[in-house]
Amino acid sequence: MGNNTKALKSGFWYILSNLAVRGMALITTPIFSRLLTHEQYGQYSNFNSWTNIAVILVTMRMEASLISAKFDFKDKLDQYNRSLIALTTLMTVVWALVLNVFSGFFTEQLQVGILYANLILLYCFAHGIVNLFQINERFHYRYKRSVLVSVVIAVSSTVVSILLVLTMQDKFAGRVFGHVIPLAVITCVLLYLFFKKSRSIDPSVWPYALKISLPYVPHLMSLQVLNSVDRIMITRICGAADNAMYTIAYTCGHMVTLLMTSMNGAFAPWLAEQLHEGRTDETRRVSRYYVLLFSVLAVFMMLLAPEILLIMGGKSYLDAKYVMPPVAMGCVCQFIYTLYVNVEQFKKKTVWMAVVSCGAALLNYGLNALLIPRYGYIAAAYTTLAGYLFLLIAHFFIVYKLGEQHTFDNRFIVLLTCVMFLTTLGINYLYDYSPLRYIIIGIAGVILAITLYWKRQFVWGIVKRILH
């Protein structure tokens, strides 16, 4: 089988498994929202938010260096992998010493007990090993083992979590143990696979790995802070119960990003090809429909917010419906600025990515500190939206400065963004008038169906060109 065929098949299965794993997290949301109290669900959300931040600091995302190491250490890549595992282990041990020596400080900041703080470190270590394994499998187009590991982790974590939550008196502890323990067990198996042939490591490659990985840390940390700091601050300022309300609504509003990830995975290579060949007329034309389709889906998400929350969380979470419009609008901003980021990556001008990401994170933190104490957890949705809007504007101007302002139909994008903001504000008032909201949903659905049918050949042509 040729490398191109292998890569295509491997990529397809990787995207499919990624969607399945993320989809499982959404599917289980209605289960855990009913098994856990608001307080327990909010505590777990806070734990998960800190875990997502800590994993970047603990692992330094050293697996990112494999893209270059694959060629620079071609004859001893296995030893390179073992060396990264050794470095990850060393960093985890150092963090564990610091954590336990200054346990009072960290438990106060994290709002969790010392046991759970150590479980965060265990999860970070295991997550780093799994990522290292997955990337190596993709490099060798061994999609079967990669997909198997992803599915086993997702299924085992879900099943164990449900069993522990049902049987343990402390349901928060059951949820955390169910999240961490299966991953740790699978990591032990992967460590055996890494070291079964040899145990040799080479510490001299550590500077090489860190030199490549460290520049990514500020960018990744800033984006993670933008995604997580709202839940952390809500827990600290308003309490875990309010964080549960926000988390359920945020999860529902962010469902549309599953589609965004898959679409961009197909769109980005197509865009790079068009830019390489100078076909900006084509990118402008396609991007209009591309952005419009995603925006329409986001509007439907906003309109159906009460019904989605009723399914995902139950009646006790319905008051959080006002979180979903700004969150969905934030997804639209994220979707659009990702288009501009694709251009920056094509031009190999990524320095400003970290700068603007840090700016967005600081803006989000400042607005959270100012507005959450006054207006509660709903304010966090609008502060996160402000962060994504900042990123959209910043990347818009970066691409303009790169001389690629003709790549997309910027006037259309600006106009559509303004219309979407007005729509976001307007939909909030429709929640009190359900009959009118249902009529609008019906009319919009009919118009969308007719338009897609009328333009079916054009739409299918775009899809085939992007997926070719």
Give a verbal description of the structure.
The chain is mainly α. It folds into 2 domains: 210 residues, no CATH class; 249 residues, no CATH class. Helices cover 84% and strands 0% of the residues. The longest helix is centred in the N-terminal third of the chain and has 33 residues. The radius of gyration is 23 Å and the shape is globular. The mean pLDDT is 87.
User: Which regions have little confidence, pLDDT < 50, spanning 5+ residues?
Assistant: none
What's the count of strands?
Answer: 0
Helix-strand makeup class: mainly alpha
The description of the largest β-sheet is:
none
| Strand percent estimate | under 5%
Mean pLDDT: 87
Q: Give the proportion of residues in helices.
A: over 70%
Multimer state: single chain
Report Rg.
23 Å
The separation of the N and C termini measures 19 Å
List the domain count as a whole number.
Answer: 2
Query: How are helices and strands ordered from N to C?
Result: HHHHHHHHHHHHHHHHHHHH
Shape: globular
Total number of helices: 20
